[in-house]
Each structure stands twice: as structure tokens, then as C-alpha cells.
Design brief:
By secondary structure, the protein is mainly α. The chain has a domain of 98 residues. The protein has 6 helices and no strands. Helix 1 packs antiparallel against helix 3 and helix 4 packs antiparallel against helix 5. The longest helix has 33 residues. The chain starts with 12 loop residues before the first helix and ends with a helix.
Length: 146
């Protein structure tokens, strides 16, 4: 890990950045989790609706993987939002998002334009695979992290 200590152009902002660091990281984690929940909610309501799409990606049998996709998005999103089992939840979300990158880029032939959002989301969730939940998480309250 780099220990480079860059000097700020406006040194007075140092305290602002330091005081908002944990808040910004928590906001990013909660936002990512909540959006995953909202995105996955229709799949929980009808987990069999995506069988064809899931099988089109090569995940057979779709009757198993379609509900797993729904659970990953909703339960994984909830766990990410509250910071419980943050790393495994973020890993599962990152995996799903990388599959969607492949789906949009290769399967649908949309290239970067189609995969752009999934790339961004995968990078965001991967951040939490590496960093974990932070001090404002259930993991921290339990005093244990994966």
C-alpha cells in the first residue's frame, strides 16, 4: 500500500475531507445496496420470469439460477446496504455484475455502450469486496468481518 502523503492545494480542506471520509464511504455502500434491492425486487416478485435470460447466459437450469439471481440482488443488496457480511455480499454482487457486462458486451453485441453501467457498478461493489463495511456497518458493530 502506498504511503504517499500528497499535499492539498487548499490545506484547509484537509479537515473537511477527513471528517467526511467515513460518511462518503458509508453513503456509497448504502446507495449501492439499496439500488441492488430496487433492481432485484421485480425478480423476487416473479423469480421465474428470468429463466430464459439466465439460460441465455449459459446458466442451466434456469429454474435454479433465476431465483439465485433474485436472491443475490435483493438479499445481497440488503446485506451490502447494512454492512452485514459485506465482503461476501459485495463479491456475489460483483460476480452478477460482471456477468451482465458479458451479457451486454458480447451476447447482445452492445459493446462498451451497453456494458458501461455494469462496469461502473462492478467496480463499486468490488471496492467493498476489498474494503469491507467500515465503522458504520453491522460487521463493525459485531466486531467481526469476513
Amino acid at each position: 500500500m502506498s504511503t504517499t502523503n500528497n499535499r492539498l492545494i487548499v490545506p484547509a480542506l484537509g479537515r473537511v475531507y477527513s471528517s467526511l471520509h467515513d460518511f462518503a464511504e458509508t453513503l456509497l455502500r448504502v446507495t449501492a445496496g439499496l439500488i441492488l434491492i430496487v433492481h432485484g425486487a421485480p425478480k423476487i416478485v416473479d423469480p421465474m420470469a428470468n429463466i430464459g435470460m439466465v439460460e441465455g447466459l449459459g446458466f442451466y437450469p434456469g429454474v435454479v439460477f433465476s431465483p439465485l439471481l433474485a436472491l443475490t440482488e435483493v438479499v445481497g443488496g440488503l446485506f451490502l446496504a447494512i454492512g452485514f457480511l459485506t465482503r461476501p455480499a459485495a463479491f456475489a454482487a460483483t460476480f452478477v455484475l460482471l456477468v451482465t457486462v458479458w451479457f451486454h458486451w458480447v451476447t447482445l453485441g452492445q459493446g462498451y455502450a451497453g456494458a458501461e453501467k455494469s462496469i461502473l457498478w462492478a467496480a463499486m461493489t468490488f471496492y467493498f469486496v476489498i474494503r469491507g463495511g467500515n465503522a458504520q456497518s453491522v460487521d463493525a458493530r459485531l466486531g467481526r468481518t469476513f
